[in-house]
Design a protein that fits this description.
This protein is mainly alpha-helical. It contains 3 helices and no strands.
Length: about 90
């Protein structure tokens, strides 16, 4: 069934690579959310933790993945290959 593999193909990951990455992102987001909740109550704590987590996750999820795709396209000689879609990540 294409529904099980379409997104994995788009992000160029195996099922277990994707699981590991998604769980890692989830953990980082939970820590960031907790820091933001504490910051809401005590504004002098965790002043930049939430935004820093978002920037780091964006770097890992979008920028690094696109750079990897560009390197792989050059290595395998497939000019014009588009970077993998990150649909579903960051818009959920």
């Amino acid at each position: 069934m294409k529904i099980w593999t379409q997104h994995l193909d788009e992000v160029n990951e195996t099922y277990f690579q994707h699981m590991r990455n998604a769980l890692s992102f989830s953990g980082h987001m939970m820590v960031g959310a907790l820091a933001c909740a504490v910051h809401a109550i005590a504004p002098f704590l965790f002043e930049s933790t939430g935004s820093r987590r978002i920037m780091n996750l964006h770097e890992r999820m979008v920028v690094t993945r696109n750079q990897k795709s560009i390197r792989e396209s050059a290595t395998f000689g497939t000019p014009g290959s588009a970077a993998p879609s990150v649909a579903g990540h960051g818009s959920e």
